[in-house]
Structures are given as structure tokens and as C-alpha cells.
Amino acid sequence: MFIENIPDLFISDHEKNREVFIHDFRMAQDIVKSKINLRMSMFSFLQVGKKQVHFGSTSVTVDKRQSLLIKKGNCLWTELLDTENIYYCKLLFFSEQILKEFLKKHISGRPVDKKETPFFIIENDSYITAFLNSLSSINDHPALFSDEFLSVKFEEILLYLCSKYGSGFKSYLYSLVVEETSPFKEVIERNTYSNLKLEEIAFLCNMSLSTFKRHFINEYKTSPGKWLQEKRLEKAKTLLEQGHLKASDIYLEMGYHNLSNFSTAFKNKFGFSPKEV
Predict the structure, then answer these.
(1) Residue 140: helix, strand or coil by DSSP?
(2) Are 29 and 150 contained in the same domain?
(3) Domain CATH number, residue 257
(4) 258, 219 in Cβ contact below 8 A?
(5) What is the mean pLDDT of each run of 10 residues along the chain (277 residues)?
(6) Which residues are in the HTH araC/xylS-type domain (predicted)?
(7) How many domains does the chain have?
């Protein structure tokens, strides 16, 4: 799986120094779990299809009724077509500098912090539809619109969302300009019971697989594969003991690709099969 540097992939040479950049993204076939190095924070205004994004500490799925504001950094995302076999979103990228200017101009004092996340969900509405239509006009006639005009459009949508969502959105905007690194253990332990592979968890930690393994052993004094298997099998045993689920309901969630491998690993650890719980 290649790492895609976004928005570099979409930017022409004469657009590289822009503070605000718009790109229409369309496709007609499903994209399954791409590795993304997001170099600028961005709005993903979803209009057709579904989008799922995995971050180091959480994940989110939205459809055309919602859009996302996503913090720059590493993530894994999947883009899914709708019933008409189309996926379409309008991406609005922006620099930290222009966001800092907006915060200085319009927001006096940082709102009380809430728990930070790498994304903010936006409910699409008639105003956002009208805003996106205006962005389409910019794409259709780029020569008519200056960088200053794009900056005004960026300011417009932020002012609207600040009015709509209040202090929660303002606090999130501040988090986009503060350098934060996700603690290694937090990323690991939030993904302990996911079905992500070691390579994918390493990517979310901004590490190569070999560096990730060395760092993991230093932190946990055991290999990541062994540690994750132990934790996931213990979790599986707990779920099965509750009596509501069968092995066939949980083996994928526990990181196993087939029921047979899960059953074998479970029996090797506990001395009895999942059916005997």
C-alpha cells in the first residue's frame, strides 16, 4: 500500500504557495483503505458516496449528509461509491498561517478545551450547499478569482461554522494550529481491539514497521504480535462468556481473517475451543 501525499497529488506547480486550495475529487470505483499523509488540514465536503477514516486514536464514517474537517497528519481512509456507482467530494485545503490569521481576527481568547479529536463532523445544510455551489463557480472560471477571493471564501465558511457550532468548533480550530503528537501508548491501546494490521498501526504512529517494533518492545517488553494476540484473545473470551455472541461474530473484530485461525489460537491459549466457553 503506497503512501499518498495529499494535497501534493492534486496541486500544480503554480498553486504550491497558495494558502487556500480547492479540489474536486470524483471517482467511479471503490478505493479500499489508502495510506494518506495529509500535509494540510482540510474540509472534505462529501456530496455523493461514503467516507471512512482511521486515525491513531479513533475512526469516523460519514455519508453525503455530513462532511469532515480533518487535521493534518497520517490517516487511513476508504472511499465508497453510492448506489449510482459515483463518489464525489469537494476538498478545501488551508494552511496553518491563514487559520492563525482568522483566529487572531475573529476569536478573542481560546474557548475551554474539550477532548481533542483529529476530525470535526459537519452536518450538511442549505447554506453549505450554496457555499459549495459558489466554490464550483471558482473551479469553472479560475482566472476570474484571486487568492484574496479564496481567502474570503475560507473566512466565510469558518464564520458560518463558528456561528453554527459555537465554542466546540472554535476550540477544534485552535487544536489545528497546536503541535501535538499522539502518545505512542495511546495509539496502541486505542487500536488493541481493532482489526488493523501491525503495519497499519505503525503508520498511524508515524513510524516504519521496524521502528514501530523496536519502540513497542521498549515500551511493553514483548513483541507487538504476541501482545496484541494475548489482549485480543482475552477480550474474545470475555465477549463469549457474556453469552450474546458467537466466535463467528467476533473473529474479524479480533484481527483474524478466518474463523479457523481464530479457533486454533483460542484453543492454544485457553485449552478449549470458543464453542466450549
Answers:
(1) helix
(2) yes
(3) 1.10.10.60
(4) no
(5) 86 80 88 88 95 92 96 92 88 95 88 75 97 83 76 96 95 80 77 87 92 92 92 91 89 86 93 90
(6) 182-277
(7) 2
